[in-house]
Structure formats: structure tokens, C-alpha cells
Amino acid sequence: MLELFLFIALLVGLAFLGAFDFLIPHLDKLSLKLGLQEEPRTKENLGSLKDSLVGSIVIVESDFVKSQVGNAFEGRVKARGTGWRAEQLFGDKPLLSGSKAVVKRIEGNKLFVEVLDIYQDE
Fold this sequence. Notes:
It is built from two helices and six strands, in the order ααββββββ. The protein is of the alpha+beta class. It is rod-shaped. It is 34% helix and 28% strand. β2 and β3 (73-79) form a beta hairpin.
């Protein structure tokens, strides 16, 4: 009698584990729909994050210096609390630390910025 009970318990346990294994892939989708977790960042959905930086104002972290390759000035900027490599698009004077710039385009992990003209409304 004990053997029959153990055999039935084993079958029920295996059936439960099989159903649980079936549910595991669906739990992630369910938790995303319920808002319990954020969608993981992938190459496909990272593009919208980068595109949203275009047009935003950034702060220069370190003075821009003349690039070893080409005539551009390069340096570091801070956009939304994150440091980025940046290249100055126009101007014969490099951006100085603490100045502001506008993001014009993004290539890879490099921002291309332009000096923010604070007198543009005058």
C-alpha cells in the first residue's frame, strides 16, 4: 500500500514539474504585461533611446581637444547623467568644461554636438 502511495505521489510530482516547465517561458511575458519588470535592453529597442538624445542639451565635462585624426575637437559630455564621447561639429574654438552644447546626431556611442548659441533669439 505504501508503494502505491509513493508511486502516485511521484506521478503527481512529475506532472506538476512538467506543467511548471511549460509555464516558465510564459511567466516572463506575463510579468512584462503586468508591469512587474522592464523590457530588457536589446540592440533593437536601444535605437529609440539614442534617437531621443538628438536635440537634447548636454554639459561639457572636460575641455575639448584637437583630434589626432582630422580637424575636429573631441571631448566628454554628460547627457542625462551619463558620460559620452563627443565630437564638436562646427567652430574653430573648442568647447570648454561647463559649457553647453546640443546633440545633432549619434554614431555608435559617440555624440556629435554643436555649440549651444544662447543668443540665438536676439
